[in-house]
Amino acid sequence: MQVAGKTILLTGGTDGIGRELAGQLKAKGATVIVTGRTPERIEAAKSAGYEVIAANLSSKAGVDAIISAVLGRDIDILINNAGLGSDHDFREAMPDLADNDRCIAANLNAPIHLITGLMPVLRARPEAMIVNVTSGLAIAPRSGGPIYCATKAGLRSYTMALRHQLRDTAIHVLEVLPPVVETKLTAGRGGKSKMPAPECAAQIVDAIETNSKEANVGMTKLLRIVESISPALARKIMINY
């Protein structure tokens, strides 16, 4: 898909991978509408020339605010990029279930609700795309973050089924599986090789432009190769990460 001239709704576009994606897509001639939840980052995005929708995707009100804000707009590409982490490790402490619920809402429920709410708009476009950012952790979970991994695995399953449902329409469905990327979300995880966010974003943009079905970004590509040879080894590598 040629992104020049397209209108893109990008969740979580004020920081991390999303901010890099927004910049690279804008540089290619797209109109990029981003969402964010932190006031300082929202103001920074506005100063950079983006239209910004303030919304917390861990709540239904946040999802509804996004849908209402783009009502009547021609959205060509929806990128579900926003995500939250959540601790759930009984070796460390009792989990905070409210925090877990926010993670599930933001990472799994919100993309499903946004896709459903914007489906009539996407169907009306001559060419459209849904991009769901999951994770290599959807393939092989990390023992310290089972809730986050479960949401990404759930979104991966949903994406695969959605692609099959929409196979005879003008809506292309792309799943992006990044590795561990250098962002605020992964700031507390030291000692591991992290992919720079600009490089990750560049591979995602390439996948959009080439109409890929899956983008196995960075080390996730290696993980998929290992998985094809030995699924048990792939799980062992990531479960201890």
Structure overview:
The protein is globular and about 50 Å long. The termini are far apart. The chain has 241 residues and is of the alpha/beta class. The longest helix has 28 residues. Helix 4 packs parallel to helix 5. It has a seven-stranded parallel beta sheet with strand order 3-2-1-4-5-6-7, sandwiched between helices. It contains eight helices and seven strands.
Q: What is the topological layout?
A:
Elements: E1 7-10, H1 16-27, E2 31-36, H2 39-47, E3 51-54, H3 60-69, E4 77-80, H4 97-124, E5 128-133, H5 146-165, E6 171-177, H6 197-209, E7 214-216, H7 219-229, H8 231-239
Helix pairs in contact: 1-6, 3-4, 4-5, 7-8
Identify the strand order in the major beta sheet.
3-2-1-4-5-6-7
Instruction: Indicate the percent of residues in helices.
Output: 40-55%
Class per helix and strand makeup = alpha/beta
Average pLDDT reading:
91
Low-confidence stretches: none
Q: How much β-strand is present in the residues?
A: 5-15%
How would you sum up the global shape? Answer: globular
Order of helices and strands: EHEHEHEHEHEHEHH
Rounded radius of gyration (Å)? 17 Å
What's the N-to-C terminus distance?
35 Å
* Sheet of most strands: 7 strands, parallel
Q: Count of DSSP E strands?
A: 7
Count of helical stretches: 8
